[in-house]
Amino acid sequence: MNELVIRQPDDWHVHLRDGAMLTAVALFTARQCRRAIVMPNLVPPVATVAEALSYRDRILAAVPAQFQFHPLMTLYLTEQTTVAELAAAALNPFIHAVKLYPAGATTNSDRGVRDPLSIDPLLAELERSGLPLLVHGEVVDASVDIFDREAQFIERVLTPILVRFPNLKLVMEHITTTDAVNFVLEQSEQVAATITAHHLLYNRNAMLVGGIRPHYYCLPVLKRESHRQALLTAATSGNPKFFMGTDSAPHTQANKESACGCAGAFTAYAALELYTEAFDQAGQLAQLEVFTSLNGPRFYGLAPNETRIRLIRQTQRVPEFFPTRDTERLIPLRAGETLAWQAELIG
Ligand code: DOR
Ligand code: ZN
Fold it and tell me: Which of 41, 74, 175 to mutate to test the pocket of ligand 1 (most atoms within 8 A of CB)?
């Protein structure tokens, strides 16, 4: 197959940032995705309904006028979050989820929750309202090996939470392991997962063989090949529990190429091309649309997009960098290399 037309996708997990970076990246998501669940890990975090609405306005102002793009906002759960704020969020048409960062787990997570097992009143409110809880699923315990943090989180945190709140609507974000795939499969239909394109395309060798490659460093970190295979099987299975969430996470070149570089891969510039490549390599192009464009809306209770996007098998070169307004450079995943597919919105 050298060409396919699918419904326009949505990105169910993306970092659009703020200020100069927002201006640099917003168009990339908007030119491929009709909607996107926007992560709230700004500094300070987007923790209230009012903050989410003002962030939404800044996003809309940064998106070029020709795109029909709808940012779906999220709130960052802090230890100060109140039940009343979550109740207000559930009633607000622009807010679609709440994000749980274990404090210290990843970029800008310091204001997150130190003990996710100590926020029962908040979880009870989410279970009551049906507002989805999006989870960064890694323990932060320094004694746990970084490659085991996701599996440990399932055992220590997610399992007990779902025993106490069996009707909680929950997305385990950017899953990276066989353990997470199996866990999600065992739960009710209220529990789903997003999978990134980079975790479908690469294992940890991409980051560590022949030199340390900081643009492949993200969290949860890339895992071994057997885990990548499990993710591919899940993503291409058609199971409604698995859907697209790029976790595109732009950082400046200086912050990535550093003695202590930030976690995050910038993939939004070619999100759909990268997913298409992964599905093509697996011989599963026929399952692409379900994963990118149908399962996500179904989980969030929204209609799938009516607009279409065309994918053509055509090699294109990835720029070495994208400029940002403040002279810092943004290095995309695969900078200077090639993409095997090209996406174009046909409306
Ligand atoms: O690689 C990542 N980057 N993982 C995250 O969880 C956060 C993200 C970011 O905000 O940079
Ligand atoms: Zn993320």
Answer: 41
Adjacent-strand bridge partners of 38 = 14, 73
Q: What spacing in Å lies between the alpha carbon of 13 and ligand 2's midpoint?
A: 6
Question: How many other CB atoms sit within 10 Å of the CB of residue 254?
Answer: 11
Identify which of 347, 243, 233 has the alpha carbon closest to the alpha carbon of residue 298: 243
Task: Determine the distance separating the centroid of ligand 1 and the alpha carbon of 16, expressed in angstroms.
Answer: 11
Distance CA 119, CA 94 (A): 24
E strands, 34-94, are 35-38, 70-76
Is residue 77 in contact with ligand 1, taking CB distance under 6 Å?
no
Residue range 184-241, pLDDT digits in tens: 999 999 999 999 999 999 999 999 999 999 999 999 999 999 999 999 999 999 999 9
Q: Which stretch of DSSP H or E encloses residue 342?
A: strand 338-345
Instruction: List 248's β-bridge partners, or say none.
Output: 14, 265
CA dihedral (86, 87, 91, 94) in degrees, to 10, reads -10
The residues pairing with 310 across neighbouring beta strands, listed in sequence order, are 5, 344
247 flagged as catalytic = yes
Reported pTM: 0.98
Amino acid at 122: L
* Domain regions of the chain by residue span: 3-345
Enumerate residues 6+ apart whose C-beta is below 8 A from 238: 287, 290, 291
Question: What is the second-level CATH architecture of the domain 3-345?
Answer: Alpha-Beta Barrel (3.20)
Q: Which tokens is 136 given?
A: 């960064």
